[in-house]
Amino acid sequence: MKKSVLMRLMGYLMRYKWWTLTALAFILLTTLTRTAIPLVARYYIDHFVNQEVAQSGLLLLVGYYFLFLLRVLFTYLGSYTFSRVAYSIVRDMRQETFANVQSLGMSYFDKTPAGSIVSRITNDSQAVADMFGTVFSSFIASFFIFTATLITMLQLNWQLTLYILPFLPIIWGSVWLYRKLSNDLVMMTRSKLSDINVKLSESIEGMRIIQAFRQEKRLIGEFEAINQEHLDYANRSVNVNSLFLRPAMSVLKVLAYAVILTFFGLNWQTATFTAGLMYAFIQYINQLFDPLIEVTQNFATLQTSMVSAERVFTMMDQTAYEPVQSESDAQVAIGNIAFKNVSFSYDGENDVLKNISFSVNQGETIAFVGHTGSGKSSIINLFMRFYEFERGQILIDGVNIRDYSQAELRKAVGLVLQDPFLYHGTIESNIKMYQDDLTRQDVIAAAEFVDADDFITNLPNGYDQAVTERGSTLSSGQRQLIAFARTVAAQPKILILDEAIANIDSETEEVIQTSLKKMRQGRTTIAIAHRLSTIQDANCIYVLDKGRIIESGSHDQLLAQEGTYQKMYQLQAGMLQQS
């Protein structure tokens, strides 16, 4: 258990100090009633058993059962209050973790599986709720009861209590040994559960590919292997729990009973040892050992919760944030772009961009072509500020790109990806993207501008048509047109097209090409193209190879150079003729 983790959790607890104090008050009242019950029973046994029960005895009996009811009530109120605090803490932790995730740069998501992120924000944070709602309240209640019971036993008969005390170091030793043996097992069990979530997320997202390539058996085998590893670690935890939890504690409690009964058997003739005292001591033995047994049993949950909390805090403390932007009031007025000797490496060792320089002005379109891995998308990643670069300059209207605020940069740049992402909601909400200043008419106007209005109005609910996850009920062309409308509605000055029509069929391509031409008018446009036929009208085309610009010029100029571009164009033209 790391002290820093525990202290941070206590910090969350202090946010709800009044609810926590209320819960502690109920636990204290529960402790007092539990401690009083054996004393009342002892008095009743010693004064009214085998005698005619007087009215005072009946009242005492009624009071005895009333204490039971109070104990149940206080226990319920204490558990309820602690649970309320627990789920409030988990809400705060999830919110802060999610907020931090939203600020992380793309480099973090490149290295971290989505399933692992989901597992930490959901499963691991839920384990923290178990700690506060069950374990923490149990530990405090156990401490109160243990302390009150021990003090009461010493007051009743300190000589007899001394015979019980040697059992306590043995119990605490068992708890220490259990913690030492179980900690690594609990951590590995949680880690394997995270691996299961990663494999599930990956399999569900890639189900079409899995089925298309008949990889079901392989995925089932891989999942079974991870699942079996999780089971193995869980079983090893169960073995440790079975040895050190209730069985071991129960044996010690039975031995304590034996000591008490032997002592009473040898000293039953002594006047100070009454039947009521013997009953009270047996009850107090239960109350002395039960909290220790409960603490030991909950230690497994505590271990799991602490490991889970550490995993959540690790994500909460991630500092691989997206590149920092200035908070200045600088605005993108025109949208002229210039790259000057920009070099970049993802890993800090191997450059994927090498001395890239180019410029594009308002109303112009430039395009980047090249084989996979040539650096096309890296140029877009740097311009969109998904990654930080250290060498060279990127300028917008002659101003360093870092000197614009993030809000201004995102407002000025419209990005259309190869595979547009649609959210749960409606067609309208996906075009508006929650920009409150856009009206329904603005949405319709944007859709009409990119020729998306026809297919939208033909849907059963028009612009109110529900969009399922990732827009799976729409065709790729329809999703792309919605993405175009979303970009147009934002009225950006700069347009970034990252293979925006790579997945579109030839018939739909004509519609989208027309939309693209209208979108590009008056805007600075940078396009990454796989189909060379889609960028022939670009003002300048740059051919990339291994991170360098090896050719540049218009479509006709590049063909005349009879270089790499011409070979790519002829290859694609030949493939089209064959098809």
Secondary structure layout:
Elements (H helix, E strand, L loop, with lengths): L2 H12 L2 H32 L6 H49 L2 H6 L2 H43 L1 H7 L2 H39 L1 H6 L3 H29 L1 H21 L8 H42 L20 E9 L5 E10 L4 E6 L5 H8 L7 E6 L2 E2 L5 H7 E4 L8 E2 H6 L7 H10 L3 H5 L8 E2 L8 H15 L3 E5 L7 H15 L3 E5 L11 E6 L2 E6 L1 H7 L2 H15 L1
Parallel strand pairs: 3-10, 3-11, 6-9, 9-10
Antiparallel strand pairs: 1-2, 1-4, 4-5, 7-8, 11-12
Helix pairs in contact: 2-3, 2-5, 2-11, 3-5, 3-11, 5-6, 5-7, 5-11, 7-9, 7-11, 9-10, 10-11, 15-17, 17-18
Widest β-sheet, arrangement of strands: 6-9-10-3-11-12
State the shape. Answer: elongated
Instruction: Give Rg in angstroms.
Output: 35 Å
Proportion of residues in β-strands:
5-15%
Give the beta-strand count: 12
Question: What would the CATH topology of the largest domain be?
Answer: ABC transporter transmembrane region fold
Structure, explained:
It is a single chain. By secondary structure, this protein is of the alpha/beta class. Helices cover about 65% and strands about 10% of the residues. The chain folds into two domains: about 5-190 and about 235-315, Up-down Bundle (ABC transporter transmembrane region fold); about 335-579, P-loop containing nucleotide triphosphate hydrolases (Rossmann fold, 3-Layer(aba) Sandwich). The protein contains 20 helices and twelve strands. The protein has a six-stranded mixed β-sheet with strand order 6-9-10-3-11-12, with helices on both faces. β11 and β12 (about 550-555) form a beta hairpin. α2 packs antiparallel against α11 and α5 packs antiparallel against α6 (about 160-165). The protein is elongated and about 120 Å long. It starts with a helix and ends with a helix.
